[in-house]
Write a structure and sequence with these properties.
The complex is a heterodimer of chains A (295) and B (367). Chain A is mostly helical. Chain A is 84% helix and 0% strand. Chain A has helices at residues 2-5, 12-40, 42-57, 60-75, 78-93, 97-127, 129-144, 147-158, 162-173, 175-187, 190-198, 203-232, 234-238, 246-255, 258-286. Chain A starts with a helix and ends in a 9-residue tail after the last helix. Chain B is 39% helix and 21% strand. The chains are: A mainly alpha (295), B alpha/beta (367).
Chain lengths: 295, 367
């Protein structure tokens, strides 16, 4: 009877030895190759530091001006541009300018990396069904695995800091870019591909002149999701030493500083809304040709 | 497959003025079986296994069976059939959007089925252009950019392709719409873009897959005129797919009728209307306006000269009847295009030919 009530386990002895073996070999691996890996990521570290310096050390009016210009070019909406400027001014006035800029630079780099890695994977997935079948479960794992769990190996390999944080954020935030790129390309009508074929387009000509442009609105939706997810990771990433708005939130949690937590949280919400509205209106503008004007 | 160039090609019947670069298309013993393992069933099909048996017993679908068509260079070959007859499958074999199970396909001296992927791409770019039933315009490109597409694929210089596109946009009557997107245009206008896109390619072969079927009757007849007009100038080899007999008779220099993946009859429109090969085709042509299809050359009594107006041998009966009734005469002299006397037709001949044969008219009254 007891075997039915109590689940038959592999035994405490074996279990702990299994853990020891895996942990041990991973530790050896990270001791052996950790430094090499770290060096491999050096360009990324440089990129992170560069963009952070650019945003924190430039005069704030210039930074706001440039961000407002980008918001205007992407959305062509006065409302969104003014909203962006006001939000940034408020954030600065409440003393969170430096932290916010650190977070924005982090998000920027993470999004660039996610795109650089995710777009080719998404394109490859759309071309080969087998690859799609292999990658989809991996993406599921990346999105459902509690983020704290994969912080552990990253920290073991690369130590605490920006690069480890960035990798954790990218792992968490990259699935939408991959999925939406794949989906967007697959949704392109077979008729149009046939037409391109009939005119003798090569595989690359089809990809860059037909499939990617038509998938772009869908891909933009994926990028929007990726930005939102990386913002959501900011607080968690701050636990492994990523600077920015996450740090004060963490401090506020530990010390029960309600107002401090609230302000920094609202700043995250503020830049999330800016990113979201700007990228969404840009996505919508890309679809302008789909508007049916003729009845 | 025989690799040597086909020497019988040059002798295929050609219309009055064939441009030197026109290309004839020759399809020989073409078979297409759809399914997981077509090659396995090919021999059985070639020996006469029925479409039914192939589908029910072996789970394969017979697309085309033993197609043999010689399409004249510089002429309009219509392939007609109802849906499911295999006509769209057939046209897609010409530029190999669909690979045949067996057979030969020649475009002039070129063996299309022997082409490597690279050669095929060049064949599609330079020798063929296609117009689609559902237009298949690129929604993210403007009319101008859509029209330039084929040239862009060929890496033609920007300025040159802009000029070519502008010329064809104007020719199909869309000047002023260059910067519109396809979704902003009506169906008829969209297909004009489709036509301009295909013509910009300046390819000797033009494939039109039910190009006008999605348009309403007035616009369709309009587009037919545009096509005939352009064809007079260009003399391309046009393969035109349709399910509409009136359209087939109006456009086709030659017509092939397809049923269940087989050619049931081919010839000129007149031949088909006057001598339908079987009941299936008879039932098709029952309602055709013969006066607009049959030309007076077919009816005339050779040699005899009568007191009456002269009419060109290529005029259709209806037009001859109109001339006769306008002049109040009972008979007309038939002349060739250079005005030489060939023979004559009487009003009685015309009326008798315009009325459908007796057996068919009794059919109609029984219904």
């Amino acid at each position: 009877m007891s075997t039915l009530v109590e689940f038959p386990t592999m035994g405490a002895e074996q279990l702990s030895s299994l853990r020891r073996t895996i942990d041990g070999s991973f530790r050896t691996f990270s001791r052996e190759y950790g430094e090499t890996l770290e060096r491999l990521f050096d360009p990324l570290r440089e990129f992170l530091i560069f963009s952070e310096r650019l945003l924190t050390q430039s005069p704030w009016p210039v930074v706001i001006g440039v961000i407002a210009l980008i918001a205007w070019l992407a959305s062509r909406s006065l409302k969104i541009t003014v909203g962006t400027v006001l939000t940034l001014l408020a954030i600065g006035y409440f003393g969170m300018w430096i932290d916010t800029m650190k977070t924005v630079s982090m998000i920027f780099v993470c999004t660039v990396v996610a795109l650089a890695v995710g777009l080719p994977i998404g394109i490859a997935m759309s071309r080969w069904d087998k690859l799609q079948r292999a990658i989809n479960p991996a993406l599921d794992v990346m999105q459902t695995m509690p983020s704290f769990v994969y912080l552990i190996p990253v920290v073991m390999l690369l130590g605490i800091g920006r690069v480890a944080g960035m990798i954790a954020v990218v792992v968490y935030a990259i699935p939408p870019v991959i999925r939406f790129t794949n989906l967007g390309i697959r949704l392109v009508s077979k008729d149009l591909l046939e037409a391109a074929d009939a005119f003798g387009a090569s595989v690359w000509q089809k990809m860059f002149k037909v499939q990617l442009p038509l998938a772009l609105p869908t891909i933009m939706a994926g990028i929007n999701q990726t930005i939102m997810l990386s913002l959501a990771m900011v607080v968690i990433a701050s636990m492994i030493g990523v600077q920015g708005l996450g740090q004060p939130v963490l401090k506020a949690i530990a010390n029960q500083y309600f107002t401090m937590g609230m302000f920094n949280g609202l700043a995250i919400v503020g830049i999330a809304i800016i990113f979201d509205r700007v990228s969404q209106t840009y996505g919508k503008r890309l679809q302008k040709h789909l508007e049916v004007v003729h009845g | 497959m025989v690799d040597e160039p086909n020497t019988t090609q040059a002798t295929v019947a050609s219309p009055d003025s064939v441009p030197s670069n026109a290309v004839n298309i020759s399809i020989k013993h073409l078979y297409k079986i759809f399914g997981p393992n077509p090659a396995q069933h090919l021999v059985a099909v070639q020996q006469g296994m029925s479409k039914q048996e192939l589908r029910d017993v072996h789970g394969h679908v017979l697309g085309l069976r033993d197609i043999n068509i010689d399409m004249p260079a510089g002429g309009i070959q219509v392939v007609m059939g109802l849906s499911g007859s295999g006509k769209s499958t057939l046209i897609r074999h010409i530029n190999r959007l669909i690979e045949p199970t067996a057979g030969e396909l020649w475009a002039g001296e070129q063996n299309v089925l022997a082409m490597s992927p690279r050669e095929l791409r060049h064949f599609r770019r330079e020798r063929t252009a296609m117009v689609f039933q559902n237009f298949a315009l690129f929604p993210h490109l403007t009319v101008q950019e859509n029209t330039e597409y084929g040239l862009q694929v060929q890496h033609v210089k920007h300025k040159k392709r802009q000029e070519a596109a502008a010329r064809w946009i104007e020719r199909v009557g869309l000047k002023g719409y260059e910067d519109s997107y396809p979704n902003q245009l009506s169906g008829g206008m969209q297909q004009r873009v489709g036509l301009a896109r295909a013509l910009s390619n300046d390819a000797p072969i033009l494939l039109m897959d039910e190009a006008f079927s999605a348009l309403d009757p007035m616009i369709r007849s309009d587009m037919q005129s545009v096509l005939l007009d352009i064809q007079q100038e260009l003399g391309k080899t046009i393969v035109f797919i349709t399910h509409d007999l009136e359209e087939a008779l109006r456009l086709g220099d030659r017509i092939a009728i397809l049923r269940d993946g087989e050619v049931v009859q081919q010839g000129t429109g007149q031949q088909i209307v006057l001598k339908p090969a079987d009941d299936y085709i008879s039932s098709f042509i029952k309602d055709v306006n013969r006066g607009r299809v049959i030309r007076c050359r077919t009816l005339m009594t050779p040699g005899v000269t009568v007191d009456g107006p002269s009419v060109d041998a290529s005029l259709v009966l209806e037009e001859v009847a109109r001339v006769l009734s306008a002049e109040g005469k009972d008979a007309a002299n038939v002349t060739n295009s250079r005005g030489k006397q060939l023979g004559s037709v009487t009003m009685n001949d015309l009326i008798a030919a315009m009325v459908p044969p007796k057996s068919e008219s009794t059919d109609q009254t029984e219904q």
